[in-house]
Design a protein that fits this description.
Blueprint: E1 2-6, H1 12-16, E2 38-43, E3 48-53, H2 58-79, E4 100-102
Parallel strand pairs: 1-2
Antiparallel strand pairs: 2-3, 3-4
Organism: Mycobacterium kansasii
Protein name: Trehalose-2-sulfate acyltransferase papA2 domain protein
Length: about 110
């Protein structure tokens, strides 16, 4: 599952932006489904965050890490205004490996 929220443009920005730092939000999931991978992409006026939840296995850790490295590479290139995204190699992330990380805010 991939969820995307763009709160950086109208009409959400006027409603959501003033409250983003004080928002009391939670994510709940059904722990009985062991092999699910979920990602939440949230784009705000001053930052984009990606949060991932995935099984605690070496294969899942490596697969999700590679996917997020590639995703970050594309986001960075777009943010820097570079148009040829395909030739960029992924850069390293700060990663705790606990399966539920806010991997690259900002």
């Amino acid at each position: 599952m991939l969820s995307f929220l763009d709160a950086g443009v109208p009409p959400l920005s006027a409603v959501f932006a003033p409250h983003i730092r004080t928002a009391n939000t939670r994510v709940f999931s059904d722990g009985r489904i062991a092999a699910r991978v979920c990602m939440w992409v949230n784009r705000f006026h001053e930052e984009t965050t990606v949060t991932a939840s995935f099984p605690d296995s070496p294969i899942a850790h490596e697969s999700v890490r590679r996917y997020l490295d590639a995703m970050k590479s594309v986001y960075v290139r777009v943010a820097e205004g570079r148009s040829d995204i395909r030739q960029r190699r992924a850069t390293a992330l700060s990663f705790s490996g606990n399966g539920n990380d806010g991997l690259f805010p900002g």
